Amino acid sequence: MPMIEGMLKVSLNHYLLLSAILFSVGILGVLLRKNILVILMSIELMLNAVNLTFVAFSRYSANIDGQVMVFFVMTIAAAEAAVGLALTVTVYKKFREVNIRFFEHLRG
Amino acid sequence: MLALADYMFYFLSLLILVSALGVLTMSNPLYAALSLAMSMLGMALIFATLDAWFLAGVQLIVYAGAVMVLFVMVIMLFNISAEKQAFSRGTVSGFFKLASAGVLLGLIAGSIYMSAETVFTPPPIAASEKLGDATQQLSEALFSRYVFAFEVIGAILLVIAVGAVALSRSVGGSHAND
Fold first, then answer.
1. Model ipTM?
2. Which of A13, A21, A25 best tests the B interface by mutation, with the highest count of B CBs <10 A?
């Protein structure tokens, strides 16, 4: 079965497809879960999926710029996690629960 | 004939997807965090198979190390156990959410199927030789062409560190209303 083997041979498309599935799982986590912590984790998953796309394209086009972008994305992701967790702490301090529906009450 | 690298990719992608689904489905946030750490680990190994050694190390240190410690520390701070209602309510809206994620996945997969084959038709055999030592090239690009962005990122990190501390200290502080 040469055709199936050709499809199973790992190429750029496999990495991109893995990244797309991972991104969709992250989106589902953001949409379906109510815990702010889990939502932040799902956002990290989505950022990771994008990083995988960058690295795969960088590897297959022999261009290092993609990896530089991944470096920046990782930095911003760490910063975003820090800010998100600080907001989560303020939500928990006020409402004793980390539910996303309390976010709108943080105003002012 | 499938090479070892192919089997490695399938094993790692299985690991990543199963642990990502664990993040989605675990009702205990601590288990979700552990699943996320597992997924980060698999992603670091995938980066290593893509010859991005430096990024694999950074992924381990920053994500599986620092960010996971932040998450786990916040979970321990709140003393959260399993939630009674982990998922948002509403069967119809839940169905629409699932459907929209499925449609997005279908769109991306379709565009990958239709475009990537044509853009990168020749298999990049020489790519790894051309890329050479990726870490050296990465550092050269980072400190020459991208040096301005690098400095700006440093400034942003400083601002965010100060902002996170200010945010968790001032707004609705735990002792403000006592």
1. 0.89
2. A25
